């Protein structure tokens, strides 16, 4: 008779521990944190948005209702914008601002990109000294050199009364734009450049075909900074174009408009909104590239 041995039954597979739901106190704390963060963000958004709402509502009010203490217009006077735009000289100010901002941005980008590329990727003696010289020009206030520069443009070149003394210097680079672009170009791996050179690309072709497409966020940030600066510039047109109303920009002509319509607050607000509208529109359409360029996040694979 053979003895039989009984094997132990296999152990039942252990069930994973049930996921515990967060405690009520933790859920309540998370909800309070969410409310606090979004409340602060909403308050900050209203803080920046309410002045624009006030300007807009005042711009569509009648002359009697504007600045009367009432916040909502009785009737929407959209004709205020047409009246502002039909003011003698306003269309010329628009054209001059577009010329100044457009050419200034184009010249600054085209002249700053090659310099930034050379300072970021070339190895030559005196490279650090050249970069220090570029940065040092950022520490010099424009008011220091305004008198000798005005004498050169007015007496030697006879270009006073126009915007060309402000546009032409931008074709020779801008220190801040060069610095920002150099910092962005440093994030581009050198292997891309070496691969382009192996394929037979020269430095100019490498810059145009490889570096510029990869540096679009940085270039967009520089272009927006320069566009905003030119569009809002008041000091430059006051120095060089004050004696010629036909060369005024919107930022400088708006002061004259306010003086002529000091009691018509609805027209003044409408003119102010027309001056701000292009800048706001450009920023909203290009804010993604602007933020990416400013933060210098590097190259995405």
From TrEMBL:
The chain crosses the membrane at residues 34-57, 98-120, 132-151, 163-185, 206-229, 265-286. Its main location: membrane. The keyword S-adenosyl-L-methionine does not apply. Residues 8-22 have a biased composition (Low complexity). The keyword Endoplasmic reticulum does not apply. It is found in: Cell membrane. Residues 94-286 form the ABC transmembrane type-1 domain. Keywords: Cell membrane, Membrane, Transmembrane, Transmembrane helix, Transport. Belongs to the binding-protein-dependent transport system permease family. This is Carbohydrate ABC transporter permease. The lineage of its organism: Bacteria, Bacillati, Actinomycetota, Actinomycetes, Kitasatosporales.
């Amino acid at each position: 008779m053979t003895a039989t041995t009984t094997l132990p039954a296999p152990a039942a597979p252990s069930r994973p521990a049930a996921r515990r739901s967060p405690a009520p106190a933790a859920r309540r704390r998370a909800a309070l944190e969410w409310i606090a963060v979004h409340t602060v963000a909403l308050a900050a958004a209203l803080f920046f948005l309410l002045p624009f709402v006030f300007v807009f509502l005042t711009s569509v009010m009648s002359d009697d209702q504007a600045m009367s203490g009432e916040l909502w217009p009785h009737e929407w006077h959209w004709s205020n914008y047409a009246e502002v735009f039909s003011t003698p000289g306003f269309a010329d100010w628009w054209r001059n601002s577009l010329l100044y901002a457009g050419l200034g941005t184009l010249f600054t980008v085209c002249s700053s990109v090659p310099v930034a590329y050379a300072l970021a990727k070339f190895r030559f003696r005196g490279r650090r000294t050249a970069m220090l010289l570029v940065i040092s020009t950022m520490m010099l206030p424009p008011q220091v050199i305004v008198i000798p520069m005005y004498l050169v443009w007015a007496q030697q070149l006879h270009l006073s009364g126009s915007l060309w003394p402000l546009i032409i210097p931008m074709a020779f680079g801008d220190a801040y734009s060069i610095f920002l672009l150099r910092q962005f170009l440093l994030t581009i791996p050198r292997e891309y450049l070496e691969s382009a050179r192996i394929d037979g690309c020269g430095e100019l072709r490498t810059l145009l075909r490889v570096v510029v497409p990869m540096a679009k966020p940085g270039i967009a940030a520089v272009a927006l900074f320069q566009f905003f600066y030119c569009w809002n510039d008041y000091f430059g047109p006051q120095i060089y174009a004050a004696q010629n109303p036909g060369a005024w920009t919107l930022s400088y002509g708006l002061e004259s408009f306010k003086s002529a319509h000091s009691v018509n607050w609805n027209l003044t607000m409408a003119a102010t909104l027309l001056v701000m509208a292009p800048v706001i529109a450009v920023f909203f359409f290009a804010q993604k590239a602007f933020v990416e360029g400013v933060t210098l996040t590097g190259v995405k694979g």
